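cron nightly-structures :: item 1 of 1
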Amino acid sequence: QVQLVESGGGLVQPEGSLRLSCAASGFTFSRAAMSWYRQAPGKARELVAGISSTGTSTNYADSVKGRFTITRDNAKNTLYLQMSSLKLEDTAVYYCNWKGPFNVYWGQGTQVTVSS
C-alpha cells in the first residue's frame, strides 16, 4: 500500500533552517509528481511546493519563494523540503502529498514550530 512518512520537523528560531524528508513506498515514486502542503492552526491546508517526477520542474507558493527548496532523490524514493530563513508564520504541520490516478495520498505530517 502507499505510504508517505515525513520526518525532520522540530522547533527552530526565526531565520533558522530545517530540512524535511518524505519517504515514499507502495508506488512508482520516480514517475510521480509530488508536493508539500502545510496547515497552520485554524487555517486551511495550503500548497507549499511541487516538483515534477524528474525533478526538473518545481513550483512554490509566493510566501516561500526564495526561502524553500523542494528536491527529490528518485534512487532513494525520498522527497525533501529545505526551509531557510524561517518565519513565525511558517509554523504549521507539513504534509507530503501524492495525487495518484485513483486517490490522493497524504503522510501523517511533521510539525514545524518557528519560535524565539
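cron nightly-structures :: done
The chain is about 0% helix and 50% strand.
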